[in-house]
Target: Transcriptional regulator MntR
Amino acid sequence: MYFCVNKYLMTRSEENYIKTIFHLGRKGTQEVATNAIAELMETKPSSVTDMIKRLSEKDLVNYKRYQGVSLTALGNKTALGIIRKHRLWEVFLVEKLDFSWDEVHEVAEQLEHIKSDKLIDSLDRLLAYPKFDPHGDPIPDKNGGFKERDRELLSEVPINTGGVCVGVKDSSATFLKFLDKNGIALGNQIKVMEIEEFDGSLNIEIDGRKMQISHVIASNLYIKANDGI
Amino acid sequence: MYFCVNKYLMTRSEENYIKTIFHLGRKGTQEVATNAIAELMETKPSSVTDMIKRLSEKDLVNYKRYQGVSLTALGNKTALGIIRKHRLWEVFLVEKLDFSWDEVHEVAEQLEHIKSDKLIDSLDRLLAYPKFDPHGDPIPDKNGGFKERDRELLSEVPINTGGVCVGVKDSSATFLKFLDKNGIALGNQIKVMEIEEFDGSLNIEIDGRKMQISHVIASNLYIKANDGI
DNA sequence: ATTATAATTTAGGCAAATCTAAAAATTTGT
DNA sequence: ACAAATTTTTAGATTTGCCTAAATTATAAT
Model:
């Protein structure tokens, strides 16, 4: 068993690398490329190599030169701890401090590095143990466990499918503000009425109101299909 | 007027130095000594000198070699901003997350460096604009204004004086736990019954209950004298 | 299969924030 | 007032985390 010896010894930067490697590792199942990390973190590949070596020393990642990198069990647990904190803080900001969902990310990026088990567990309790963050992403529990919700991209479902909007794939402020402007929010009932062959845009009915959205938009919205359809 | 150009460009370490210089500057009205800063921050005088030069470059402190250091108007405003954040977070931890008053300091030391005006102003609102933190220290408002509450050390008041316990001078966990163990808390009515000549210890009546406390304890408790006594 | 291209790593350097050891300035004691 | 003690600063080194430029390895193309 791991005793998280280094849990409180990690620097901010190390934590950010672990988080990034976790996110990139989700997509493909294979090793994460140095360049991919560098691009996402807006840093240089050489800096990434430096850091990977340090993380490797600490047994947070598996690393062989030129072969990419992957999280160890300890690294994975660490990542889930950071993501838990990030998402709980996001819920706090929206629920308790009236932030909008496009404002939370930046502040949560700072708050996720605060080190105190008691703090985060108390926050969890204050928020009544939420299962999802404001963008519909699942919040790991204190042991790092979480289940991906059963959901599909709106762009992937057939005509006449309806469901509840439960999440966004792109959670950039730009996209979220666009959704606000167009009255699209989590919890809305969405039904696909028609798909335009020409450009893939969709005619949808959202909470009774008809509108047209581009394929790009649809491919960034998750819905949970209604039962029995 | 200052436009706080550097407000969001300050490092954690710089902020900690500014805070320390502020606290040391309160006591005596004169310049703060390098050694005093080093001792309080548990660092070496040479490190302090280095940092002071950097702070001086940024116009946060007045500095002349060998002459000690003092905050500029900008430095003072910066310090008050950090203290505001620290104390608001302490209130949050106690009021919303059920921390005890001896547990808040460590976590608040981390939270005080989070950079977001919206965050701290919303927090202020959530907490209903508290005027004092859990140790009875005043919380600066968003412009840095605050008034020291009218209060006296219990050790300084004459026999038969009574008042409400409104603060502690030493807010170390050790002292606070001692107070908890002995049932002394902010809000208690305290009256000085007798002062022992030999060692300066005090017989007091606290919320109706009689007890004896040492001079050291009394010199770390603030009371607000009852009106009309 | 060999070359061209792309990805990754190494080498060497820089800034922040710290340290130790030594030098310089100030303060104190008599 | 002058030597001794104390305080403060300088000089030079270290660690983290980043950079650029050059070298190395892997991958893709013909």
Notes: The mean pLDDT of chain B is 94. The domain at 152-225 of chain B is CATH 2.30.30.90 (SH3 type barrels.). The radius of gyration of chain B is 20 Å.
